[in-house]
Design goal:
The protein is an alpha/beta fold and about 425 residues long. The chain has twelve helices and 21 strands. The strands form three sheets. Strands 4, 14, 15, 16, 17, 18, 19, 20 and 21 form a nine-stranded mixed sheet that branches. Strands 5-6-7-8-9-11-12-13 form an eight-stranded parallel barrel, surrounded by five helices. Helix 5 packs across helix 6 and helix 8 runs parallel beside helix 9.
Length: about 425
């Protein structure tokens, strides 16, 4: 569900013609719909209304300050994985007591920053990390609330690059080592065991892996309680998928019912870390057709956005719908839609049936709100695109286009070469 719809053959974001935004800011260009993000958050969060819970939006999905501020106002907390994300979340007004810090490779500096900020808890991914957290907490004389991230060895049946809950993945601590780890560190008065955590993967389109993981987490949680640990939070991570193509992922209410059923009778506050389901379909990447060409085998549509701007198709062979900004109804072609970057992997679609396009036409790559701009780079010395947020009939530039000077702003030629 989203608010990118055609009116009389012209694509709109909410009440604004996409063409109007293009005229103002050029292409390539990310456009987000505030109303869509809000709606997704509300539907997701209210699906858990009957139990104690905290929805910590997963900042990595889209970390623009404006989007974090929007979600913060809706009552969202944040799931962060770096000092940079901590900085963004706090700057956007998300209170520290609603922030959880995940990730396998937190540095000393990051841990110290988060401790000083007073975050809700650290989702700890190894015994060495827990030992370090204990040392830093002792040094700062600040009690460190933590949850261990269990690796429940559940197959999320998603793309291997975004599966995280299997033993072969780098994430979490094996289930059978969790209890002994809590016991081992119970001596340190500066470590406060506050919860238990897991995250099994992203873009899950069925409920059963979530249910399997929660069943195991509940057993572990109760085991910990019976050993005297007074845990308060059960963090089940994120991962709920969205429809990019023909997928039919569970609805938030189906997801919540399944979890709530599994947790019946357990005294805890559930933490959820949704990313994609909140912002994925709330963003598009608009791009201009630079050239078209054909050889005996294929048609190519060459556009002004590249894999550096949006890498999901190249990296995960991800499917994203591509639709024209102006639908002229001139028949269809089958083409590869490719970018200007010097790599054969620089494509947005292969052998895709799309409306016939000409040089100068605009295309919208749908479902680009999550893991879009945040994964962009300057590869091929391409300045990154701007981000625009629409609210009703209002257009807000929430990140300006990078310019050529930005590309070299951090670089220096040693005097010996000049
Ligand atoms: N919590 C943790 C600990 C995570 O690692 C992630 C995502 C999330 C929550 C949010 O997951 P979501 O609800 O968005 O599925 N770049 C990939 C996705 C990587 C996901 C990494 N972790 C993509 O474009 O598909």
């Amino acid at each position: 569900m989203h608010y990118f719809l055609y009116h009389a053959g012209e694509l709109y974001c909410e009440e604004v013609p996409v063409l109007k935004i293009i005229e103002k800011f050029g292409t390539p260009l990310y456009i987000y719909s505030g109303k869509t993000i809000r709606r997704h958050f509300r539907v997701f969060d209210s699906a858990f209304a009957e139990i104690k819970h905290l929805t910590c939006y997963s900042v990595k999905a889209n970390s623009n300050l404006a989007i974090l501020a929007l979600l913060g106002r809706e009552g969202a907390g944040a799931d962060i994985v770096s000092g940079g994300e901590l900085y963004r979340a706090l700057k956007a007004g998300i209170p520290p007591h609603k922030i959880v810090f995940s990730g396998v490779g937190k540095t000393e500096e990051e841990i110290e920053l988060a401790l000083r900020a007073g975050i809700l808890m650290f989702n700890v991914e190894s015994l060495e990390e827990l030992a370090l957290l204990g040392e830093i907490a002792k040094k700062l004389k600040i009690k460190a609330p933590f949850a261990l991230r269990a690796n429940p060895n559940v197959d999320p049946k998603t793309h291997p690059y975004i599966s995280t809950g299997l033993r072969k993945n780098k994430f979490g601590i094996p289930e059978e080592e969790i209890l002994s780890a809590y016991i081992k560190f119970s001596e340190n008065p500066y470590l406060e065991p506050l919860g238990l955590d897991a995250h099994i993967g992203s873009q899950l389109t069925t409920l059963s892996p979530f249910v399997d993981a929660v069943k195991r987490l509940r057993m572990l949680y109760e085991d910990l309680l019976s050993h005297g640990f007074s845990l308060k939070y059960l963090d089940v991570g994120g991962g709920l998928g969205i429809p990019y193509d023909q997928e039919e992922p569970p609805l938030p209410e189906e997801y919540s019912s399944a979890l709530i059923r599994e947790l019946k009778g357990l005294e805890t506050t559930l933490i959820l870390e949704p990313g994609r389901v909140i912002v994925g379909n709330a963003g598009i990447l608009v791009t201009k057709v630079l050239y078209t060409k054909s050889n005996r085998e294929k048609n190519f549509v060459i556009v002004d956005a590249g894999m550096n701007d949006f890498i999901r198709p190249s990296l995960y062979q991800a499917y994203h719908k591509i639709i024209p900004v102006l639908d002229r109804d001139e028949g269809q072609i089958v083409a590869d839609i490719v970018g200007p970057v010097c790599e054969s992997g620089d494509f947005f679609a292969k052998d895709r049936k799309i409306p016939r396009v000409r040089r100068g036409d605009y295309l919208a790559i749908m479902g680009a709100g999550a893991y879009g701009f945040v994964m962009s780079s300057n590869y091929n010395s391409r300045p990154r695109p701007p981000e625009v947020l629409v609210e009703g009939d209002q257009i807000y530039l929430i990140r300006r286009r990078e310019d050529i000077a930005d590309l070299v702003a951090l670089e220096e030629i040693p005097p010996i070469y000049s």
